[in-house]
Fold Succinylglutamate desuccinylase/aspartoacylase family protein.
Amino acid sequence: MNSRSPFETFRWHSEIFACYSNDIEQFERQLLQETTRLRLKPRVLGHIDGWPLQLWQSPSARAGLPSVLISSGFHGEEAAGPWGMLHFMSELSEALFDQVNLTLLPLANPTGFSKGHRFNRFGDNPNRGYLSVGDGAQPSVEGKLLLAHGQLLQAASRDGILTCHEDVLSQQTYLYAFEPRQQPGAFSHGLLSALANYFPITEAPAIDGCPVQEGIIFNHFDSSFEAWLVRSGAKNGACSETPAKANFDRRILANSAVMQQFITALCA
Ligand SMILES: [Zn+2]
């Protein structure tokens, strides 16, 4: 949305993690702890200003299992996504990897996250420029790294892509969803229900120029990371939006819950 300011800074305190939302050192420490415990395989796609752009994958991918990708932290001020992913990981056990080939991209925009502002430190939007849809957007440095690993990301998201965003202007939740059908199905409704356990669903008829029906913006292709992966073959896609005017820990728990629901839906 144009009225979101790219360099306005946001910072919240988490009681769950006992730190501030932009504490990237603490985030990296806890991420290393969880990824080590789960024996996830690291894959560094590149570096941005010294910070790694990193994927974490199931210890060994298996044929016949669904392959799904969960990502967060594209917009630096939308901090409950990455912290929610840490919370989600803390509740996983290695047994999950008998059911799914999981790839995690916890922090797509480390320089924005550490400052608590939307865009990266170079002033670019890391969630635009993946598809040519006439918006004229060029990929950011993060986008270029992700696009350069297109084959890897397409294989990782073959059965589904979830990306977790927040809306700093909102007190209500909503969802962008992609399914190969005319109307939202069980996949979309399941994710929205997980969010609705934490926040009221938006009653807005349109958001950022997109029509919203019962909290869902359906099959809307912009130049975002998630639209690109769906266009590239991911069977299901979603982008959750938690309301950043609500309590930070509640937003963390909602992000964790929507990630869990995504896994449950696609492993069924
Ligand atoms: Zn966002």
About this structure: The pocket of zinc ion is lined by residues 74-75, 78, 165 (CB under 6 Å).
